[in-house]
Design brief:
It is a single chain. The radius of gyration is 47 Å and the shape is rod-shaped. It starts with 8 loop residues before the first helix and ends with a strand. By secondary structure, it is mainly α. The chain has helices at residues 9-53, 57-106, 111-155, 159-224, 238-269, 274-300, 305-309, 311-321, 323-338, and strands spanning 227-231, 234-237, 346-349, 352-355. The strands form two sheets. It has a two-stranded antiparallel ribbon. It folds into two domains: 9-224, Helix Hairpins (Orthogonal Bundle); 231-355, Helix Hairpins. Strand 1 (227-231) and strand 2 (234-237) form a beta hairpin.
Length: 357
């Protein structure tokens, strides 16, 4: 049963029905064994009574062997009944395992419940392993007794004693066979439970990843929607700023590329001087940049009134931190318009000689 797979309710019901049929067979067998054990008990008590009544030493030895033989059958039936009752418990474990595996497959259990299943299953694995170890030792002891009885029976010449020893050996053989069946069920349940634990571990690993992913996405979403400032009841979030920066970068790169390609094609048909062409290209780029900035402000939902709000701060920043940058920017436009120097001119400044590119 441990190698079977379930996919839907019908498969689960098949597995559970199969286990229930095994349980019914075991219950009927136990009832039959109990009745047989009562007969063995009466036979054992009668053999003891016969032994106590026997006075002849030789006949008494035979009666003692009969008591030993009845005792062997008595212990065999008692052990087989105990094996069968424990096999019922193992089938209950397997039934529960199937229900757990089905719940894992259909994802109808929460994390805490699944972890409790694993804890219970791990405890069962330890218990079953311990029982298997004890049964293996028990098997070795039983086999040793069988070998010893066979040796005594072989050396025995009295037919009556030989017959009693043979029946006692049969009792131990039956005990050994039922013990093997019991160990087989133990191993089957062990494998079934280990597979359940493996599936739980896979699910728990997936759950840990999912929980970490949810935590990460939750933290990311909190930062993503964090309000940097509010202007005219319009919140400016990290998300809007990020989108605006991306649009600005893509827009600047695209504008520069489009203007350059388009302007080069225009120059093939229009006869502009090189300096004039550069000035027009620069002016077009800055106009495009201005439009892109306005578009970004619109996307980010920042009103132009915000610049009036931050005007003083920006003016102070420009005055102290960006003075050289603005001076160079304006000087560049003056040079392009007045054209005191042109592209291709050779100039010298501070002892350095260079060509305008």
């Amino acid at each position: 049963m441990a190698s079977r797979v379930i996919y839907d309710d019908a498969d689960l019901q098949k597995q559970l029905q199969s286990i229930e049929n095994l349980k019914d067979n075991l219950r009927n067998r136990i009832l039959k064994l109990v009745d047989e054990r009562e007969d063995i008990e009466r036979s054992w008590m009668k053999a003891q009574q016969n032994l106590s009544d026997e006075k002849d030493p030789k006949a008494r030895l035979l009666k003692e062997l009969e008591v030993s033989e009845r005792e062997a059958w008595r212990k065999t039936y008692q052990s087989v009944i105990e094996f069968s009752e424990d096999r019922l418990r193992l089938l209950d474990y397997q039934e529960q395992n199937w229900r757990y595996r089905y719940a894992l497959l259909k994802d109808i259990a929460d994390n805490q419940e699944i972890l409790k299943w694993k804890e219970k299953s791990v405890a069962r694995i330890g218990e079953i392993n311990k029982t298997i170890h004890l049964q293996q030792k028990y098997q070795l002891d039983t086999q040793a007794q069988i070998v010893a009885l066979e040796k005594v029976s072989t050396d025995q010449t009295d037919p009556a004693m030989k017959d009693i020893l043979s029946r006692q050996t049969n009792a131990l053989r039956k005990l050994s066979e039922r013990s093997v069946e019991y160990v087989t069920d133990l191993i089957d349940t062990l494998q079934h439970t280990e597979r359940l634990v493996h599936e739980i571990d896979q699910r728990v690993g997936s759950m840990v990843f999912q929980e970490a992913y949810k935590d990460f996405m939750g933290s990311f979403e909190n930062i993503w929607n964090l309000e940097v400032w509010v202007i005219d009841d319009r919140p400016v979030t990290v998300k809007k700023l990020f989108v605006g920066i991306i649009i600005l970068i893509i827009g600047v790169i695209s504008a520069k590329f489009i203007i350059r390609i388009t302007w080069r094609r225009v120059l093939k048909y229009a006869h502009f001087k090189q300096n004039t062409a550069i000035v027009i290209e620069k002016v077009l780029f800055y106009c495009a940049l201005f439009l892109i900035v306005l578009f970004v402000l619109r996307i980010v939902n920042i009103p132009l009134g915000a610049f009036a709000f931050f005007g003083g701060t920006i003016a102070i920043g420009i005055g102290f931190g960006a003075r050289n940058l603005i001076n160079n920017f304006i000087s560049g436009f003056i040079i392009m318009v007045e054209q005191p120097i042109r592209v291709g001119d050779l100039i010298e400044t501070d002892g350095l000689l260079g060509q305008i590119e």
